[in-house]
Amino acid sequence: MRKIFCILSCLLVAGCTSFDRNPYDGALRELRVTAVYPEGYAGYLREGVAVKLSDRNTGNVYTALTDAQGHAGFRVAAGHYRLSVLDLPDDSAVFNGTIEQVDLVGGDKDVDVALKFSKPGTILIKEIYSGGCMQDPPATGTYADDKYIVLHNNSFETYYLDGLCLAMVAPYNSNANNPWTSTDPSGNIVFRDYAAIPDCIWMFPGSGTDFPLEPGEDAVVAYYGVDHTQTYSQSVNLNRKGYFVLYDMVHYPGNKLHPTPVPGDQIDQAHYMKVLKKTGTNSAVVYVISQNSPAMILFRAPEEFDMDAYLADDLQSTVQNGSITYSKIPWDNDWIVDGVEVCNMTEATKNKRLHTDVDAGYIGFSAKAQGHTLHRKLDEEATAAAGFERYVDTNNSSNDFYERETQSLRD
User: Fold this and answer.
1) Measured distance CA(267)–CA(259) in Å, rounded
2) What are phi and psi of 10, to 5 degrees?
3) How far is residue 292's CA from residue 300's CA, in Å, rounded to a whole number?
4) Whether the bond into 138 is cis, omega within 30 of 0
5) Which domain of life is it from (predicted)?
């Protein structure tokens, strides 16, 4: 029988400063949590690991700390919650675990949270700008063809962008039904063995050593590589030397509403990203990045793996759902370099698309078309020690990112 342990209310900290109602009104429930480390990592078990419980209705967040046996407890109002555990024991290990659905309506509950091990990343997604900005007065519309992504080398070694791949994960929006996951009786999300890519896979050009990214350096990937500020003053100039651009007129020539512009004079043709494989619908002439909730991954096939042969074999590399064909990319740590889940914060439904091994949480925009970006937090202590910018990387975007009010490329 599980040992009943004392729940210390002093360990519960509300993460919000205002409430629509008292979260302790009505029936109270006890939640007893045990953090379970993966096989071979039991030696990492320790006290003081933060366990967060998020009310799925109000957004209130409560935190408890584990004891030496990995137990933590909560006493909260009856309701529906999300549970997450994050342990950063040292610079070489990250342990994450989540349970998306914790039902405390019917009574008290005991749950085990299986933690997954991962290593801190090398090349990270540092910034995502997809929400767009307002058009200049007297126009009252919005503009969102100025999207960009910034990558960052967070390690102490030089890495090469050559062959690194970028893709969005289905479904395009977080509030859409997700046929690629299910939920087990304990409330854990069950993922398939692969990420379903709804459109195309982009790959950095190069023969292997053409595009080095030194420690602390950034690489910008532009949706359209032009100076958008010439038309919209609140936008950004993406016609700059060194920038990469998602440009392929064979697959994405654009349409009347969204014509594909030729990259500006500062963009080297050698920096045009390559379409490695196109799936989706044949009629798609514009590459889609969700404005409010993209889920994106960086990945690279393991050495000695024949990526071209794999993608050429549709029986192996694709899967059908309805009339749409999707590419399959394994969730294996040997493949995935980084990933960030962006959810639509204005919608009640926030379906997880990225495997929790890749991103155990999510981040979102408070509003669209405000020029805001999602930016990774700077690790000031690690930066001071390294002598170059190093960013927080816990494989949980809820912890790692914040919403920035202006695009960093305007600085």
Assistant:
1) 18
2) -70, -15
3) 26
4) yes
5) Bacteria
Q: If you count them, how many residues does the chain have?
A: 411
Q: What is the pLDDT along the chain (411 residues), one digit of tens a residue?
A: 344 333 333 334 444 433 345 444 578 999 999 999 999 999 999 999 999 999 988 889 999 999 999 999 999 999 999 999 999 898 778 899 989 889 999 899 999 999 988 877 799 999 999 999 999 999 999 999 999 999 999 999 999 999 999 999 999 999 999 999 998 887 789 999 999 999 999 999 999 999 999 999 999 999 999 999 999 999 999 999 999 999 999 999 999 888 999 999 999 999 999 999 999 876 778 999 999 999 999 999 999 999 999 999 999 999 999 889 999 999 998 999 999 999 999 998 999 999 999 999 999 999 999 999 999 999 999 999 999 999 999 999 999 999 999 999 998
**How far apart, in whole angstroms, are the C-alpha atoms of residue 61 and residue 76?**
11
Whether the CB-CB separation of 247 and 205 falls below 8 Å is answered with: no
Look up the pTM and report it.
Answer: 0.83
Distance CA 326, CA 340 (A): 19
Structure tokens at 224: 């359209």
| CB atoms inside a 10 Å sphere around CB 128 | 23
Phi and psi dihedrals of 409, rounded to 5?
A: -75, -5
Q: Indicate where the chain has its CATH 2.60.40.10 domain(s).
A: 9-118
Distance CA 91, CA 73 (A): 28
Domain 9-118 has CATH 2.60.40.10: yes
Of 306, 333, 304, 266, the residue nearest 93 (C-alpha): 333
